[in-house]
Amino acid sequence: MKLTSFGGSAGVTGSKHLLEAGGQRLLIDCGLFQGEKTGRLRNWEAPPFDPRSIDAVLLTHGHLDHCGYLPRLVKTGFRGPIYATRAGREVARVILLDSARLQEEDAERANREGWSKHRPALPLYTSADVEKTLHQFRSAEYGQPLRLGTLEVRFHYAGHILGAAGVRVDDGRQSIWFSGDIGRLNDPLMFPPRPPEAVDAVVMESTYGDRNHPPGDPEVQLAAVVAGIIERRGVLLVPSFAVGRAQTLMVLMDRLLRRRPELELPIYLSSPMAAAVSELYRIHTDEHRLNPEDLAAVFARVRIVEHAQRAARLDRREGPIMIIAGSGMLTGGRILGHLLGHGEEPANRVLLTGYQAPGTRGRALLEGERELKIEGRRLEVRAGVEVLEGLSAHADRDELRQWLATAPVPPRQVWLVHGEPAARSALAEALRADRGTDGAPDVAELPESETVDAVPGG
Questions:
Q1: Are strands 384-387 and 165-170 parallel, antiparallel or unpaired?
Q2: Nearest-CA neighbor of 102 among 77, 130, 137?
Q3: Are residues 42 and 158 in the same domain?
Q4: How many domains does the chain have?
Q5: Which tens digit of pLDDT belongs to each residue from 119-156?
Q6: pTM of structure
Q7: Directed axis angle between helix 272-283 and helix 245-259, to 10°?
Q8: What are phi and psi of 121, to 5 degrees?
Q9: 230, 336: one domain
Q10: CA 415, 366, 380 angle in degrees (round to 5)?
Q11: d(Cα 302, Cα 216) in Å, to the nearest integer?
Q12: In angstroms, rounded to a whole number, what is the distance separating the alpha carbons of residues 66 and 45?
């Protein structure tokens, strides 16, 4: 088995891992680079491998940093199947179509208003490109074997978001487990991730490899933020990922307002994508903790804003109100319009609720920057910035260690990916310490663009 990473090894976006085994070339995930401009520019480069040589794509889940490059892969020659779980396939469909729509709108606006240096500005891919890509999707069932030539592939529940899976590939002699993104052990929405089976190698994410999520109940902090907004009659802007984070916020607000009805305020979900994904929770009730009654109560509290005109009217609304909108790292989407409308008012608040990648506007706000460039305009953010800890859908350092420790047999090799350098290095050190010297796996950080033996010496 040969393994090469073309993204998602030196950072947390652009996941693309090529596995060569049993005469097959499989691409595990095919994500967009996000954040730093140098990374985003890589999305426009020709793929670092021949797309026509890839036999199949195995998609762990539908987040953009794992699936967002698929239309470009198809556009440049890939003709094989794309396998995902049923829920993962539906989530990817919503996210990819929304991604294309936003790119088309941004390109059209840039050309109309003249703020792009490209003439003309073009989308990375179009809605038509996405529709063509969706025709190549195939469904995989959790735990059921999938034959790809001489290889056996199985998808296993990973928590994190709807449809997320770890993927096991076995060539009859060696086996490898790709973790994708690993969910929390006590996530308010999702069940715990399935631990890895006895395999020779594990390719494991390390997003939170250098820290644990803070103790305590995020609902308590959320209550304090909402109380302050009501007192100041302000607007609470919540940048949110449309899959998982938006739904978790809605659940937390429902629980909070049942307990503290005096904190009631209008809640707007200004994200057609988050609204579409929320409907998937009603369909795939076996993948999460909420029963139909809970779901109905949660959604009844939220006013869904489908149309752009209604969203624009929110930018003229006075508080107290709460607006949940994508994207979670302020890289695009409706949250930017809402920030332009409300970000200059000191009584308002921006509530960051998850990981903010380097180079994103969310990371800039997190690090104290208050002047942002949005659609060619400089915005001075006078609204206060708050951080709601503990809502990440990623396992933290100790949960990652516990997940690996539950494998029935320690893998011979652990490759760490999908983490910033400090996080990868810290997790590698912790995993080595956990195992000691008796039966310890070799723990290494998977290099980018360098082919390695998935199981060295195997």
A1: unpaired
A2: 130
A3: yes
A4: 2
A5: 788 899 999 999 999 999 999 999 999 999 999 999 99
A6: 0.90
A7: 80
A8: -75, 135
A9: yes
A10: 140
A11: 26
A12: 17
